[in-house]
């Protein structure tokens, strides 16, 4: 037996502590997770693209949907608030990377400070998203749904500005009560009835001669089609079914129902990621404060949650582009 | 701190920062400028970019390219991809890029096909009735 196995510390391949690709186990696993999560998100965004190409001639224009900014009423400011949200998330990414950097230099107080700012940024972002959801669900102008499931919106023919259904619809004495479990069939229920019925909208429109209808169909330039006054009345009378206010998973006043579904699903899934990121950040924040990583002599854990946090920012960059810009 | 050495140049060495903190601020500025350009283009939508290139508006191509630029700097500088070994970089980036391109091609192609079938004048599917 002339051959012997030399067991220098270099060859203890199976005893742990190895760093393949120069990345520690935890970091490597975080990258695994990020790649698979990136594929999940790309699945969502690409299926949004699928729906959009499928309805290429009638998809809502995001600029006309997300026009609100908190505390500013009655002004249409497309993009401003989303741009603010994007900036908040990028800033909190920056404070995170500064925390990681301070961790490399073992400066505990700096890590604490930057982690704190990161958490605040995340909370502002999630809050903004909640506000955006609330505004989207509430809606602003209202619209009428047709038999075919299309949406008719109302415009002032002189200024080409949107007009709210509230502003012109008549209010007849209610023609029908809401069907509740206790006043109808006990196992059936229906959602809240719209404030106005189609008859009330028709009556209102006949008495105000300046109102025309805009359909969802896009012309070659990407603008929505505006019907003439006579055509508007005809379309409303022959095809109008119900009044739609705001958005839910079944119908929305902005156009294709899938638009709202994808909005809720994609920004919701992203918001959930931000939320779990905040929770992870808070855990790590307290670990930093009680000195766990000081004792461990390594702030690598901050780096790992940092990776996750940047990934959330990365996803938002894509959501921002495909939902609000393109 | 040798093992935490950072590569400090961006733009293929055109700009070299003195410290990691400076690099972070530099990348932040770059990302902010790109976002600002996107927002301004998104609000004003200049007519010049309304022509089509490969079935997509020029404006949308600009948005997508700027997004990829942003994604590159977030991954490379914030997620420290620049400092990882090149094989880790390739494993992560090319796996994702290949699968995402494949998925995008298939679904977008299919969406366009369904659109053509739906709104062809000779078919029987109507959403207006």
Tell me the number of helical segments of chain B per DSSP (H or I, 4 or more residues long).
Answer: 3
Rounded mean pLDDT score of chain A:
89
Helix content of chain A: 40-55%
Low-confidence stretches of chain A: none
Rg of chain A is 27 Å
Span between N and C termini of chain B? 72 Å
The CATH superfamily title of the largest domain in chain A: Cytochrome c oxidase, subunit III, four-helix bundle
Helix-strand category of chain A:
alpha+beta
**β content of chain A, as a range?**
5-15%
Please state how the strands of the largest beta sheet of chain B are arranged side by side: 1-2
For the largest sheet of chain A, list the strands in their spatial order.
Answer: 4-3-2-1-5
Order of helices and strands of chain B: EEHEEHH
Major sheet summary line of chain A? 5 strands, antiparallel
CATH class of the largest domain in chain A: Mainly Alpha
Percent in helix of chain B: 55-70%
pLDDT < 50 stretches of chain B? none
Spatial shape of chain B: elongated
Provide key terms for this protein.
heterodimer; A: 326 residues; alpha+beta; Four Helix Bundle (Hemerythrin (Met), subunit A); 2 domains; five-stranded antiparallel sheet; B: 129 residues; mainly alpha; two-stranded antiparallel ribbon; 6% strand
């Amino acid at each position: 037996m002339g051959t012997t196995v030399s067991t220098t510390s270099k060859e203890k391949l199976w005893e742990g502590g190895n760093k393949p690709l120069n990345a520690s186990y935890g970091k490597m696993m975080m990258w695994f997770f990020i790649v698979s999560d990136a594929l999940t998100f790309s699945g969502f965004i690409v299926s949004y693209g699928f729906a959009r190409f499928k309805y290429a001639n009638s998809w809502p224009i995001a600029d006309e949907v997300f026009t609100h900014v908190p505390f500013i009423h009655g002004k249409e400011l497309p993009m401003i608030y989303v741009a603010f949200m994007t900036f908040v998330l990028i800033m909190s990414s920056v404070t995170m990377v500064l925390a990681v950097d301070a961790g490399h230099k073992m400066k505990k107080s700096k890590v604490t400070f930057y982690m704190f700012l990161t958490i605040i940024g995340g909370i502002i972002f999630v809050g903004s998203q909640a506000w955006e959801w609330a505004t989207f669900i509430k809606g602003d102008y209202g619209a009428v749904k047709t038999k075919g499931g299309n949406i008719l919106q109302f415009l002032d023919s002189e200024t080409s500005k949107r007009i709210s259904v509230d502003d012109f619809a008549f209010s007849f004495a209610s023609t029908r009560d809401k069907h509740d479990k206790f006043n109808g069939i006990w196992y059936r229920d229906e959602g809240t009835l719209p404030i106005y019925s189609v008859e009330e909208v028709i009556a209102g429109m006949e008495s105000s001669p300046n109102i025309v209808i805009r359909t969802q169909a896009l012309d070659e330039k990407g603008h929505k089609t505006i019907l003439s006054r006579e055509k508007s009345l005809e379309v409303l009378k022959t095809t109008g079914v119900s009044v739609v206010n705001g958005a839910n998973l079944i119908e929305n006043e902005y156009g294709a129902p899938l638009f709202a579904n994808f909005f809720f699903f994609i920004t919701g899934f992203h918001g959930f990621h931000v939320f779990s990121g905040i929770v992870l950040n808070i855990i790590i924040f307290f670990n930093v404060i009680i000195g766990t990583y000081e004792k461990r002599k390594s702030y690598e854990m901050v780096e790992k949650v940092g990776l996750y946090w940047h990934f959330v920012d990365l996803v938002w960059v894509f959501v921002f582009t495909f939902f609000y810009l393109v | 701190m040798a093992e935490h050495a950072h590569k400090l140049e961006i733009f293929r060495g055109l700009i070299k920062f003195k410290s990691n903190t400076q690099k972070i601020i530099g990348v932040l500025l770059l990302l902010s400028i790109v976002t600002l350009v996107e927002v301004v283009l998104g609000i004003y939508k200049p007519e010049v970019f309304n022509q089509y290139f490969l079935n997509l508006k020029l404006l949308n191509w600009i948005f997508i390219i700027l997004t990829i630029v942003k994604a590159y700097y977030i991954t490379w500088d914030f997620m420290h991809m620049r400092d990882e070994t090149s094989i880790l970089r390739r494993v992560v980036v090319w796996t994702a890029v290949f699968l995402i391109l494949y998925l995008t091609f298939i679904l977008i192609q299919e969406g366009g096909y369904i659109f053509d079938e739906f709104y062809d004048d000779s078919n029987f599917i109507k959403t207006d009735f």
